[in-house]
């Protein structure tokens, strides 16, 4: 076993220039080398990509990586190419490619040059692709963002539920590795069931604690007042990358505008902008021509920007799960990240109003999720402990290290109450 450990570490240094594996990475990669189906539950920023990138590069054949978004695939392909010494080492196959480009990609796989192929689940369902993969040498299949399989997840995609069916058609008896940052047991069991992972599958669960993130909730008062606070906070962190989440397109535009007026390189990002503008904004953020993105939920999934220094929520999210995912985009490099949520009880009422027209099941589920968000916002106890408990993890708040507002200022343990918000508004 010792020899293989050195072997993996050597490959890690050679390929990515990292000295050591993070968390469970090494055991996960070993599991794939053992030919086992492997289920990885690891928080955002934990280093899931490396768990399939490294063995993909090392093993014979080409690894199929299923990923839900084109932007996400492009991001990863670019990053692997920057480590590797050839462009052919990684490709993506999706509807954005021309016929000629597709042919080239397939040639590179057949000739053994390509070690990692990123595909959308839709691409897998195409007859000609299934035929191609049936004859190709596939090392293993990675299903990234596997929570997309579950309706209980925060990002359900129906096509994801057909992956198993497609893999059966491809017909290889190849190991699969499913990866997600979702910690809820319901989603996890959905994934295992739907993918029909082997009986002797290996599951790796990491702690969901992000000890470099500072959690804070602030009362949300009148718009002008909160905008002023945001501007002040952003200016305290000059030239740092950050994301401000909002619920409406209008708020995204307004906050971006207010920041720009105050000399901050900010831009809005929401579903109302055309795809070209959105992709340009995303690139500008990655290139640091834009520091602060004011976004609706449409932004951030899988974007690998390691040095995001803050994530603010101007509007409270719909669930703790969403909050955890969105704040998880801060501090992926292990350095600090400030997570500030602005909370007003009237925003909860607004969210409840949205639910009113929904079917009963959805309404009840939504209301339950919102209760938790409210409890988080109003708690006077350790926020980190609250978040981790939500995911079923025992956590002793003495380990928080004053990395949340309630642990840092225990004397002022009043939380954010409705009265405070009313006082601010009056
Ligand atoms: P996830 O998909 O779990 O959210 P990523 O795969 O995007 O996380 O990795 C997050 C960051 O951690 C990336 O910047 C990546 O380069 C870095 N990283 C991953 N593994 C290691 C390692 N063993 N040593 C140092 N940095 C690592
Ligand atoms: Mg990832
Ligand atoms: Zn705390």
List the helices and strands and how they pair.
Layout: H1 2-16, H2 25-33, E1 38-41, H3 48-58, E2 62-66, H4 70-83, E3 90-93, H5 99-110, E4 116-119, H6 121-125, H7 127-135, E5 138-143, H8 163-170, E6 176-180, H9 185-195, E7 202-205, E8 213-219, H10 223-236, E9 241-245, H11 249-261, E10 266-269, H12 275-287, E11 292-295, E12 308-313, H13 320-327, E13 337-343, H14 345-355, H15 360-378, H16 383-390, H17 405-408, H18 418-425
Parallel strand pairs: 1-6, 1-7, 2-4, 2-5, 3-4, 5-6, 8-13, 9-11, 9-12, 10-11, 12-13
Helix pairs in contact: 2-3, 14-15
Magnesium ion (MG) binds at residues 48-49, 144, 302.
Please characterize this protein's 3D structure.
Residues 29-201 form the Helicase ATP-binding domain. It catalyses: Couples ATP hydrolysis with the unwinding of duplex DNA by translocating in the 3'-5' direction. Its EC number is 5.6.2.4. It comes from Neolewinella litorea. The chain is of the alpha/beta class and 426 residues long. It has helices at residues 2-16, 25-33, 48-58, 70-83, 99-110, 121-125, 127-135, 163-170, 185-195, 223-236, 249-261, 275-287, 320-327, 345-355, 360-378, 383-390, 405-408, 418-425; strands at residues 38-41, 62-66, 90-93, 116-119, 138-143, 176-180, 202-205, 213-219, 241-245, 266-269, 292-295, 308-313, 337-343. The strands form two sheets. A seven-stranded parallel sheet has the order 3-4-2-5-6-1-7, with helices on both faces. β3, α5 and β4 (116-119) form a beta-alpha-beta unit. α14 (345-355) runs antiparallel to α15. The structure holds adenosine-5'-diphosphate, magnesium ion and zinc ion (ZN). The site of magnesium ion has 4 residues, from α3.
